[in-house]
Design brief:
alpha+beta, Pseudouridine synthase, 3 domains, 10-stranded mixed beta sheet, two-stranded antiparallel ribbon, 9 helices, 30% strand
C-alpha cells in the first residue's frame, strides 16, 4: 500500500493553513507530526497532490487496530455501555496512530455508538477514566445527552469500590483522609501535604490475607475522586500497592488495582455494575473463587 494522498482543489497560502482550516488538524498535532516546517509552510497549487501520514488524514478518528486482551461487556442498554477494562491499556488514544487502547478495542468490536458521542474529543463517550495500569469497570455514554448530564452532575456517581493488593497484613479500617497536592512534571504525581484544597477521602477494609505470601487484598471505597488517590493514600498508610513502583510498591507483573463495582444514576434509575474477573489477582492470592465471593462478604458491603 502506498503513502496516503490528498488533492488540494484550490490555491492555498501554505499546507499548514490548509490542514488547519480545511481538514481540522490542530497546530499542536502538526507540531507533533513528522511533517517538516518547510513542507508545512510551502504554498499549494490547485489540484496539487499531497502525501500525508494517516494520523493527519484521519485526525479525530479512532483506529480499529486492537491486539490487546479481550474486553468484557458487563452491561449494555440504549443509554449506557459498561466494560471490564484490562490492565495495562489506556482508556483512549491521543491520535489516530495510537492503538491497543480501550476505545480502539470497542471500535474493533463494532461498538460504534459510544464513538459517536463527544466526537470532537478523543475520549469520546467515556464518563470517567482509569489509569493505564488499572483494570475494571469503565462506563461510557451512548448519546450526547447522557454524556453531558453525567459529566456535569457530580451526583451521577453514587458508589465506587476497588480492590488492591498490598504487602503485609493490612489492619487499617474505617475512613482515611489526606490532603493531596499535584507534584512533578505537569502534576504527574500526587503527594501528601499538611494542608491543601484537595482533600481525599476513602474507606478501607481487609478482604483477605494470605499468610504464606504475606499479602493483603484490601477493599476500598472512594468517597472523593482524585487522580492516583488510592495509590497515594495507601502508600501514605505504609501499604503501597504491589506493582506500583511510582509510589514505593514492589515490582510485579502488573499494578494490582481493580475497579470492582460502580453504582450510578442515569435518568432517575440506579445502575449497579460489577467486574468480577481480575486476572492475576486470584493467582497471586492462591484463591480458587472469584472476586465476587469476596465482594459478597458483609465486611465489604
Amino acid at each position: 500500500m502506498g503513502t496516503p494522498t490528498l488533492c488540494c482543489l484550490g490555491n492555498e497560502e501554505s499546507l499548514e493553513n490548509f490542514l488547519m482550516e480545511s481538514i481540522g488538524v490542530s497546530r499542536q498535532r502538526l507540531k507533533k507530526s513528522d511533517l517538516s516546517k518547510n513542507y508545512l509552510k510551502s504554498n499549494l497549487k490547485s489540484r496539487q497532490e499531497l502525501f500525508l501520514p494517516t494520523s493527519i488524514l484521519n485526525v479525530g478518528m479512532i483506529s480499529a487496530d486492537y491486539n490487546g486482551p479481550p474486553i468484557e461487556i458487563l452491561y449494555e442498554d440504549d443509554l449506557i455501555l459498561a466494560v471490564n477494562k484490562p490492565g495495562q491499556i489506556h482508556c483512549h488514544p491521543l491520535s489516530y496512530d495510537e492503538h491497543d487502547n480501550l476505545l480502539s478495542g470497542l471500535r474493533s468490536m463494532k461498538k460504534f455508538e459510544v464513538l459517536r458521542v463527544n466526537k470532537d474529543q478523543y475520549d469520546r463517550g467515556l464518563l470517567h477514566r482509569l489509569d493505564f495500569e488499572t483494570s475494571g469497570v469503565v462506563l461510557l455514554a451512548k448519546n450526547d445527552d447522557i454524556y453531558t448530564a453525567a459529566r456535569e452532575h457530580a451526583e451521577f456517581m453514587k458508589r465506587k469500590e476497588y480492590f488492591c493488593l498490598v504487602e503485609g497484613h493490612f489492619a487499617e479500617g474505617e475512613e482515611h483522609m489526606h490532603f493531596l497536592k499535584p507534584s512533578g512534571a505537569k502534576g504527574s504525581k500526587q503527594i501528601v501535604v499538611d494542608d491543601s484544597p484537595h482533600r481525599a477521602f476513602m474507606r478501607t477494609k481487609l478482604a483477605h490475607y494470605n499468610e504464606e505470601k504475606n499479602v493483603s487484598l484490601v477493599w476500598v471505597e472512594l468517597v472523593t475522586g482524585i487522580r492516583h488517590q488510592i495509590r497515594v493514600q495507601m502508600s501514605a498508610l505504609g501499604f503501597p500497592l504491589i506493582g506500583d513502583t511510582f509510589y514505593g510498591g514492589a515490582e510485579a507483573p502488573r499494578l494490582f488495582l481493580h475497579s470492582y463495582h460502580y453504582s450510578f444514576l442515569v435518568n432517575q434509575q440506579i445502575y449497579n455494575v460489577t467486574a468480577e474477573r481480575a486476572p492475576l489477582f486470584l493467582d497471586f492470592l492462591n484463591l480458587d473463587s472469584g472476586l465476587e465471593v469476596l465482594g459478597d462478604k458483609r465486611l465489604i458491603r
